[in-house]
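Blinded run. Sample ID left blank on purpose so nobody reads anything into the name before looking at the predicted structure. Input follows.
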Amino acid sequence: MGLEIDFLDETNEIKTRQLELIKRLLERAASLEMGEGSDGEVSVTFVSNAAIQELNHSYRGKNAPTDVLSFPMEESGEGEVDITHDPEIPRILGDIVISFDKAREQAQQYGHSLERELGFLAVHGFLHLLGYDHETAEAEKQMFQKQEEILKSHGLER
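Blinded prediction complete.
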């Protein structure tokens, strides 16, 4: 089965080739991080700045749009029981929400393609689902090295 990706485009602006690129990038990330042939499920939703601002405010207390949010299913919150993974069934990794508006803005700001920015945001969100973060300089360095390795493998250097 591999990585099952459920795409939802609330903006109606994502092109098929962009979805195919993101699919390949996430499959590559899953292969590298979870092991070849590992099964997992993830959803990727594309929204407007207004929609992601609402989510950012609700879940993070930040009343501003952001570029990507990740909602890991395997991460336990306060008072929750840790989720144990049964190797016989696919891992349900969680949800990635990407602001298409913010991706377009940042691609222009950084001087690279929209595809590169969408790919970066998808991989960044996916690594968060797997437990990576950038809370410390060391963790950030490790996460960003992995992102760049995956993006470079598809010709998406900065």
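Unblinding after everyone has recorded impressions. The radius of gyration is 15 Å.
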